[in-house]
Amino acid sequence: MNFEPITYDYTLEEDSAPAAIAVSPPLLSTSAIKRKRS
User: What highest taxon heads this organism's lineage (predicted)?
Assistant: First the structure.
């Protein structure tokens, strides 16, 4: 597992979030959502 949150953390902006999550695997999307909701 080479998924580093920082790798896509800066990519998830207010507008880019839906698109990034849609393209990302379930694991990444779940982590991204958790990080955004924190």
Answer: Eukaryota
Mark out the alpha helices in the chain (DSSP H runs): 5-9, 16-23, 26-37
Contact 24, 8 (CB under 8 A): yes
Instruction: Walk along the chain (38 residues) in steps of 10 and give the mean pLDDT of each run.
Output: 56 54 60 68
| Cβ-contact 19, 8 below 8 angstroms | no
- Residue 11 carries which side chain, given as an amino acid letter? T
13-to-1, 2, 3, 34 alpha-carbon distances in Å: 24, 22, 18, 14
